[in-house]
Design goal:
The structure holds 2 protein chains of 2 kinds. Chain A is an all-alpha fold. Chain A has helices at about 1-20, 25-50, 55-80. The chains are: A mainly alpha, B mainly alpha.
Chain lengths: ~90, ~190
């Protein structure tokens, strides 16, 4: 069962990468990166359960947080033009 | 067939695809996004190699912080890279030669995870046997970093702390009104 889920993750990550590489707008690419992060979080959890070491699931949670921060940073850059308060 | 080998081969193929498309693109934001994706996949690969602490660092620094730093720097850059005029033949050739040499050298390396390879025979047994009695921390990596190599870690922390203070001092906005700063300080207190 875990193996089937891992194969599904692999397949969807290929599709996501194709979308990221061909993507027409930047937002396609940002969304692709976010989805790739989610797939990788699921992949870490599944890999842990498949290899009988489910302790790695907290690392998957940290990945989810980092992925979220990265997406927020990209979107903030687009909406305000800079990330810090150095803008004049 | 070995499932771990298949997973590793798949991840390496993904990384290769990302690297190839990184070569082709001229858009700066796309480069940043693809680099972040590359780091995420590299971190997943470290997990399949059982190096969880390295994977943690790769995800936090490679995919998290450095992406944000690149983006912050990108606000001051043009959106597109300039097109290269020079020929890329010589760099490509030197990269291929270097890669071939590295692959050739890798045939002499011991098998991954082999207990009798030289790196596992020098100090590692002492650490593994002694750390429970010497220090009393069950995690060997933590006991090495925090106690056996405590002075090293302490020095690193001092260097990074000093660098952080220096950068903050240099980047401080010196033109601010002193009154405003005073008001802010009072508000914060």
């Amino acid at each position: 069962m875990f193996l089937a889920a891992l194969i599904a993750c692999a397949f969807s990550s290929i599709l996501i990468l194709i979308r990221a590489i061909l993507g027409k707008t930047t937002f396609d690419r940002v969304l692709a990166l976010n989805s790739l992060g989610t797939i990788i979080v699921i992949g870490i959890a599944l890999h842990g359960f498949y290899m009988d070491r489910p302790e790695f699931i907290d690392i998957a949670i940290v990945y989810a947080l980092i992925n979220f921060i990265g997406t927020i940073a990209v979107l903030k850059l687009f909406s305000s033009g800079s990330l810090g308060s150095f803008k004049k | 067939m070995n499932i771990e080998l298949i997973i590793n081969a798949f991840l390496v193929t993904l990384m290769l695809g990302i690297a190839m498309s990184l070569l082709r693109t001229r858009s700066v934001i796309f480069t940043v996004i693809l680099t972040s994706a590359y780091s995420l996949i590299a971190a997943l690969m470290f997990i399949t190699l059982d190096a969880v602490d390295v994977a943690f660092t790769e995800a936090a620094v490679g995919a998290g912080i450095s992406t944000i730093l690149f983006l912050a720097a990108m606000a001051y850059l043009p959106r597109e890279e300039e097109k290269r005029i020079n020929s890329q033949l010589i760099p490509a050739l030197s990269c291929i030669v270097l890669g071939a040499i590295l692959i050739w050298c890798s045939f002499d390396l011991p098998e991954i995870g082999l207990a009798s390879s030289p790196i596992h025979l020098h100090l590692a047994p002492d650490y593994i046997i002694g750390s429970k009695n010497d220090i009393g921390i069950p995690n060997v990596v933590t006991s090495i970093l925090a106690s056996y190599r405590g002075y090293d870690t302490f020095g690193e922390v001092i260097v990074i702390f000093t660098a952080g203070i220096a950068v903050l001092t240099l980047l401080q906005n010196v033109k601010k009104d002193k009154k405003k700063i005073k008001k802010k300080v009072i508000k914060n207190v």
